[in-house]
């Protein structure tokens, strides 16, 4: 990691007051997934890594301000990158990738870097980590199992079919199968009758 990236990492880490479903640990996993996907798909890492680092920087502010975190995050990233004299020709691509990464933003990722960031962010919502994050999210909002399983059906089970890159589709197949197996087991346990002598 070069000094420039290390400084970005420190800046982003400082923005996360606490952990949680969208804490700094999520950002770290998304960065690693971006690196993994880019090694197979090709991407401009000088765009992809800053976009991955900044993609959720405004997440802690979203509930307070009501501003979508992808919009505020893009603004924060642009301001920071200009302040450190990051190459101007890459800033617009970073801002686009941040704006387009969110599942529900309605903005289509138009670059390879934006597609990889979207895929990486969605992959981190699937599989074992996605299950853990979903239950953390439910707990953060004072909700229980029913809310969490609702989120699986409303969003997570749809993510496999939204991947842009071949490499992400391969990972998504495995993670999707894990989600389905988990839900079947959970449904079985919730619906199971407890013997009267227990």
UniProtKB/TrEMBL annotation:
Pfam families: HD (PF01966). One of its GO terms (molecular function) is hydrolase activity. Residues 23-126 form the HD domain. Keywords: Hydrolase. The keyword Chloroplast does not apply. PANTHER family: HD_PDEASE DOMAIN-CONTAINING PROTEIN (PTHR33594:SF1), SUPERFAMILY HYDROLASE, PUTATIVE (AFU_ORTHOLOGUE AFUA_1G03035)-RELATED (PTHR33594). This is Phosphohydrolase. The lineage of its organism: Archaea, Methanobacteriati, Methanobacteriota, Stenosarchaea group, Methanomicrobia.
């Amino acid at each position: 990691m070069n000094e420039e990236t290390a400084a970005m990492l420190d800046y982003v880490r400082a923005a996360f007051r606490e952990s949680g479903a969208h804490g700094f640990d999520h950002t770290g996993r998304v960065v690693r997934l971006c690196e993994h996907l880019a090694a197979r798909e090709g991407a401009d890492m000088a765009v992809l890594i800053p976009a991955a680092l900044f993609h959720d920087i405004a997440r802690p502010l979203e509930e307070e301000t009501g501003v979508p975190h992808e919009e505020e995050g893009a603004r924060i990233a642009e301001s920071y990158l200009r302040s450190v004299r990051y190459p101007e020709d890459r800033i617009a691509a970073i801002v686009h990738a941040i704006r387009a990464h969110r599942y529900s933003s309605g903005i289509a990722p138009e670059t390879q870097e934006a597609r990889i960031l979207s895929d990486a962010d969605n992959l981190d919502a699937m599989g074992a980590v996605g299950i853990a994050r979903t239950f953390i999210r439910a707990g953060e909002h004072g909700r229980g199992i029913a809310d969490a399983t609702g989120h699986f059906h409303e969003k997570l089970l749809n993510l496999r079919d939204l991947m842009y890159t071949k490499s992400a589709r391969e990972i998504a197949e495995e993670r999707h199968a894990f989600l389905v197996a988990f839900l079947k087991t959970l449904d079985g346990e919730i619906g199971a009758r407890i013997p009267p002598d227990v």
